[in-house]
Amino acid sequence: MTRILAITNQKGGVGKTTTAVNLAASLAQYGQRVLLVDLDPQGNATMGSGIDKRGLERTVYQVLLGQAKGQEVIQPSPRGGFDVLPANRDLAGAEVEMVGLKQRESRLKDCLLALAGRYDVILIDCPPALNLLTVNALVAAQAVLIPMQCEYFALEGLSDLVNTVKKVKAGLNPTIEIEGLLRVMYDPRNTLAQQVSEQLKRHFGAKVFDTVIPRNVRLAEAPSHGLAALAYDRGSKGAQAYLRLAEEFIARSRAKETA
Ligand code: ADP
Ligand code: MG
To answer: Is 43 in the pocket of ligand 1 (CB under 6 A)?
Structure first.
């Protein structure tokens, strides 16, 4: 069965796109067939996968508006080993244009259902907002992966997000769950980070991934080359951490299947 995961956090700059691209590349390394859906008008996941967002005639925008089919728009990431449903700034208009459409919250879901079976995992890189695009991601997904930095206000933002997931669960997507919280840009020497990390584990228990993503400059450099860290510097701490995350994710998914 295809697992569909929304990578979301309404804060910007918390590592959503970095996680989306690097987890996609790492899962592909383990033989998984992966589709990365860029649902952010900034198109960072598209660029970071090695696809020039400026040259695209059609993107996820046309798919959401029913003007193109997913398979007509999807492209392979040249060196990532996964497929991409790309985005660019056109998508910024989608929010307004979708309001008048039927089933505006489930347009992405319908598109992804049509692709089911072709992929083992579909990752959705969300914009930094709790808007209609993010709602589309939450309706399409079986679970959410929340990257977060362990800083003072992180937990506060988290409760807004958890409430949004609860609302979606109560209405549009009764089976959605939180897959996991991922600690990113983590510095183990920082006492505050340790404290927030402990709090997270108290609140969310096993939902917190064991794998921690360290702050690593290779992860920040790789996107400017259109590469996942794995292709840019395989031995880097960042690339290795995302490989471990992929292993943990696969092990958890198998455990769920057999449960
Ligand atoms: P978001 O998609 O949530 O806005 P990004 O993934 O784009 O966040 O990350 C924000 C910035 O932080 C980017 O410049 C990215 O390269 C950098 N970054 C993300 N994760 C790490 C990390 N683990 N170590 C160092 N830099 C990181
Ligand atoms: Mg992003």
So the answer is: no
d(CA 123, CA 156) in angstroms, rounded, equals 25
Residues 163-177 have a mean pLDDT of 95
Residue listed under structure tokens 């399409």: 140
Q: Give nearest CA residue, ligand 1 atom 11.
A: 13
Each residue of 129-162: b (16+ CB within 10 Å) or e? ebebbbbbbbbbbbbbbbbbbbeeebeebbeebe
pLDDT confidence tier of residue 108, bands split at 50, 70 and 90:
very high
- Domain borders along the chain are 3-258
254 or 60, greater pLDDT: 60
| Residue 99 pLDDT greater than 90, yes or no | no
Tell me, which fold does domain 3-258 have in CATH? Answer: Rossmann fold (3.40.50)
Where do we find the tokens 């790309």? 86
Output the CA torsion 80→219→128→182 (10° steps).
Answer: 90
User: Please, where are the H alpha helices in the chain?
Assistant: 16-29, 44-48, 60-64, 70-73, 94-98, 107-113, 132-140, 154-170, 191-204, 217-221, 229-232, 237-258
pLDDT at 230 over 90: yes
Query: Does 98 sit in the ligand 1 pocket, CB within 6 Å?
Result: no
The residue whose CA is least distant from atom 10 of ligand 1 is 13
Res 153 pLDDT > 90: no
Question: Higher pLDDT residue, 5 or 258?
Answer: 5
